[in-house]
Write a structure and sequence with these properties.
Blueprint: H1 9-37, H2 40-72, H3 75-95, H4 108-113, H5 115-137, H6 139-147, H7 151-179, H8 182-202, H9 207-236, H10 240-268, H11 271-290
Length: 295
């Protein structure tokens, strides 16, 4: 709300930083709440539903904001977001139980035993998630250079990745219920992700095959992310809030480290070496996830 009143760009940037801090605090708390209140067998599906909402917001937000800005000015999107946050606060206050959770507890000895496995899972997630997001950054440039697409067509083609991501989020719960072991789902999804990403970025296939790779790449990421979050929450026990916050931090650091690789590849047309590097890092993350045994 204050963003609509500030007189300078610097003040607006400071408020955006505060908004980012609030979002960074909210996301791991939401996942920790799911782990506290929902049985383990249903956690991946619940987290997938949350991530589906995030995916929809990321995909539709810029378009909706643009339409609102054209119609009623740039303040309108911010006022709509502020109003939505207040509605969400009211709904959460009424719906979320205020008592301390008594279910889904884990013995302290199990938590200590799982500590090393949690650390390896965090590093593995940073590897496959960071490489997948960084690779997506120059997917549009690959489509433009390889198939001669115009800017508008590139935007439509790249949106296939978002479609796959949403499909993966919706399938996360089904996969968890069907196979009843998130560890296997995670390893399979990350391997599929690494293969489809590498194929898309390095192989000169036809456009339909490339779009299919984008779709599978997004779907695999959409399945792997909630599965990984559910595993971390279950293994962390009472420390799930700290572990999930650390997970988000590791993801962000990995993306920041790998984004320059994607940016330099787009600028210098050295796409194949960069793609091979990102695919290898993603596969290394899949292998890292596979080496962590289930408790």
């Amino acid at each position: 709300m204050l963003l609509t009143l500030v007189p300078t760009l610097h003040a607006a940037m400071a408020l955006r930083i505060l908004g980012g801090l609030a979002a960074a605090a909210t996301i791991p708390t939401v996942f920790a709440l799911i782990a506290d209140r929902i049985p383990p067998a249903k956690q991946a599906g619940a987290m997938g539903s949350v991530m589906l909402g995030m995916t929809a917001g990321i995909a539709a937000g810029p378009a909706v904001a643009g339409l609102l800005t054209e119609a009623w000015g740039w303040r309108t999107p911010f006022l709509l977001i502020a109003g939505s946050c207040l509605v969400a606060f009211g709904a959460g206050w009424c719906v979320i139980p205020h008592d301390r959770p008594s279910a889904c507890t884990i013995k302290e000895s199990s938590i200590k035993k799982a500590g090393a496995g949690i650390f390896r899972l965090l590093l593995a997630k940073g590897a496959w998630n960071g490489s997948a997001v960084a690779g997506y950054v120059f997917a549009g440039e690959v489509l433009r250079m390889r198939y001669g697409l115009e800017v508008g067509a590139v935007g439509v083609a790249v949106s296939v990745f978002g479609l796959g991501l949403g499909v993966g989020n919706m399938l996360a719960g089904h996969c968890s219920r069907r196979y009843q072991r998130e560890e296997n789902i995670l390893v399979l999804a990350t391997v599929v992700m690494a293969c489809s990403m590498t194929l898309f970025l390095t192989a000169a296939t036809g456009l339909p095959v490339a779009l299919g790779c984008l779709l599978v790449w997004g779907a695999a990421l959409g399945i792997a992310a909630p599965a990984s979050t559910a595993i971390l929450a279950q293994r962390a026990g009472a420390n799930k809030g700290k572990v999930l916050a650390a997970s988000e931090s590791v993801n962000n650091v990995a993306v920041l480290m790998l984004l320059p690789v994607a940016a330099s590849a787009s600028a210098t047309s050295l796409i194949t070496p960069a793609a091979a590097l990102l695919g290898g890092i993603c596969l290394a993350g899949a292998i890292g996830s596979a080496t962590v045994r289930r408790r």
